[in-house]
Amino acid sequence: MDKITGHDTGPSCISCGYSHSRTLNVAPRVRSWLRVDEKLGVGVCSECSEWVAAWDRGVRHATPKSDGEARSEASAPEGLDNLIRQAVLPSLPHVLLEVYDILASEVSSSKQIAALLETDAGLTARALRLGNSAFYGMSRKVSSVSEVMLLIGAFDLWWLLFTTEVKDLFFGIDRQLMDMNRFWKHSLFTACASRVISEKYRLGRPGELFVSGLLHDIGKLLMLQQIPVDYHMVLKRASEGEVLIDVERDLLGYTHEQASAALLEHWKLPASLISAVGEHHLEVDTLSDKLVVAAANRLAHRVLEESEEELPEEVLKIDVNTEINPLYERMVNFVT
Ligand SMILES: [Fe+2]
Ligand SMILES: [Fe+2]
Question: How far is Cα 287 from Cα 291, in angstroms, rounded to an integer?
Answer without folding.
Answer: 6
